[in-house]
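To whoever is on call:

I kicked off a structure prediction for a single chain this morning and the downstream step that reads the tokens threw a length-mismatch warning. I double-checked the sequence; it's 135 residues and nothing unusual in it as far as I can see. Pasting both halves so you can look.
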Amino acid sequence: MSDDERPDGRRPDDRRGGQPEPGSRRHGDPDERGRRRPMEKLGELLPKTARRLGLDEPLELAAAMTAWHRIVDQRVPEASGACRLTSLEKGVAIVETNAAIVAQEIRLRSPELLAALRSEVPIPIRQLRVTLRHV
């Protein structure tokens, strides 16, 4: 008998007659009173699950980073690839650049870029801080 077999010869993932293991329920299966739970969209479940697991902040940062990349590509294409949003700290979006000229352009256009970022992410962002990364 292998480590992953049960004494009755079945594997843990085997099911008898296609039925779930006793005590387990799948989404949409009847509850204790015989009622079915309504199906939920995956897009609605993920944020709830992330919040419950304490992953909402990293997901918000990832969404803001993606939005920033898209905004810079559209509005300041010459800065695309030369700057990136690195963090969100207490309502401040930190943008890192690798060239002084890019940092200056981002600072000059910060009201426009900040407004675009605010419109795309649900996080309250009040300020854009640009830092120059010395390579």
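Update from on-call: the warning came from a stale cache, not from the record. Cleared it. Sanity check on the structure: Helices lie at 42-53, 56-75, 100-108, 110-120.
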